[in-house]
Input
Amino acid sequence: MKCENCTKKECSKKQKNDDTQSTSVDALSSNDGFEEKNEFHTLANAKILLSDCLACDNCMTSEEGARVFQQNQKELFRILNLNKKCDTSKHKVLAVSICPQSLPYFAAKFNLSVNDAAKRLCGFLKSLGVHYVFDTTIAADFSILESQREFVQRYQRRNQEEHALPMFASACPGWIRYAERVLTNLVTSHICTAKSPQQIMGSLVKGYFARQQNLSPDKIFHVIVAPCYDKKLEALREDFYTALYNSQEVDCVLTSGEIVQIMEQKNVSMKDVTEVAVDSLFDEIKEGDVVRHDGKRSDGYLEHIFKHAAKELFGMDVKEITYKALKNKDFQEVTLEKDGETVLRFAAAYGFRNIQNMVLKLKKGKFLYHFVEVLACPGGCLNGKGQAQTEDGKPDKALLNQMEEVYAAIPVRLPETNMHVQKMYKDWLEGMDSKKVQETLHTKYSAVSQTASNLDIKW
Output
């Protein structure tokens, strides 16, 4: 199946080879001018295959290409090396935030419990010179809570506003980029305005945490460890940049697999690393056991929004959700009935094929859903192309099955029960309906015109 609006004779998403990058690509890497001889110099630049990402190479500009290639292990070590120099004016506070869907990968790969994996990963990163290691679950708390509230508001306005419903989830950067660059106005007005957990974590680290530590945001170098490559593109968005401090909310994204490459480079096994408790954004408090949200292979936006909407709109307490698989296991439906009438109809659409089918229904005016959790990766976030892949680039099904078991066993914590979140709404965000909430936790998605300076590369 070719991508919509594709003008290529051969689908670039099918190109999956290990050819050497062209000289035009090599010229893009600004890291090449910083080739200090150190123990990490043999690490390769990040190579992202087109098939690793829903976004097509045709929507990559030359500038974006250059900045994407900076997001690799060498950039992390550039900061680590700067911190070792005498000139303290160039030193950075290094903070790493780990996505909850990355932890099951480390747990399954090294045969550890998820709590041990989190602590050993923290210990390893701090042994490199990282100052703080955070869990992004709190950022997902904010994202889910804001998405819940927005859906209820959209539902209540559905008869007055043409584009109020359906609402599409905004957490997956591959889907967002495809929507903005290819689908444009057909869907952008339907996308939830809540920031993704990654970008809310950026706001928390460079906003809340920086203020707590009396640091300027540009003095923090913030790294995200994530399961997929699309997160690298998301970190480059202009709306996640603070001009006053010349600072991105997320400076670098490394995949789980890239972290393992660093371990292999240093000949370190997770089992040999000293356990260190994961840091908290709140003073000297350390994180406890790992928790997750509802949802089998993602942050569970569908389940949380569905249960919240059922309660807020119809006064119904939904304890368990029953999924109905439609054409395949990655396209599932959930409905709520009251007095014999279907009052809520939600869907989960994972993978490009299901996204295409969903968009086709929307175009034909046959779209029945009020909300869709859209994820670019088949199987959800756990199956991100930055982890659980074999050497030939195919999903490691055995490892993925282990990861799903690990993830399912993690205790669920409802976002509403996180007292830190409630306190931050009050003390930092100035209330749930404040202007600061809109500025900090929300963004706007809109159609982006294709540029003539696109770069045809394997990225």
